[in-house]
Design a protein that fits this description.
The chain has helices at 6-22, 38-58, 80-96, 114-134, 143-156, 216-223, 240-249, and strands at 175-181, 187-193, 196-199, 210-214, 235-238. It is α+β, with helices and mostly antiparallel strands.
Length: 252
Amino acid sequence: MTTIDHGAAVAAETARLVTVLRDADPDTPVPGCPGWTLTDLARHTGSVQRWFTVLLRGRVQEPPRSREVDLRLPERPDGYPAWLAEASAEAAEAFAELDLDAPMWAWGADQHARFWVRRMLFETLVHRADAELALGRTPDLDPVLAADGVDEFLTNLPFAALFAPRTAELRGSDRTLRFTRTDGEGDWLVRLRPDGFGLDPDGAGVTADATVRAGAADLLLLLYGRLDRTSPRIDVRGDDALLAHWFTHSAF
């Protein structure tokens, strides 16, 4: 398991997002989330944090039947930065009481409380990047966190069909894609099988049908659809039809 303190990173990434939002027009469109403004992005991020916090405090053992949470939404758009900061503070209180190894229902691969803290981090980090991109800025993403985000994305994507239905089409006759980090350690082989897809833990020596190489931050933005594979920052090789199939159906 990673040694990253995901809870501390949630607080840091939320603080960075709050700073961006405080200085921005809340009606600014967010290209990474078509149809959203910065207000929508703040509302979504804070709502997710509050929802996950409720799940963690309840140590839920089965899929919840309702997503109703007392969000206490602000009355004005300029109230969202402070409201988001409050959501992060509430999450931090829950983390302080949390046993990360506690068994818990999760929609992904890791059926422990730590799943939700890690998932909250990357919801927040990616949307912080969205806010900066919306304002014409280049997001500065910590490469260690970004590499962990790549791993989290690829590990959990096979379980995401409920809200990412196109992933059900990620099938193949033993076809492989390799994602390699160029600015540090990180290499992931995804295998598409007739019955599904997933990471291959024994893929180190496999020659992949298609490869994608980039720095960790760019790999993360690419996987989340915030960067196109035609970008000069991305090195793609191999079966282009397989790559097109992957990126068409892996939207999260």
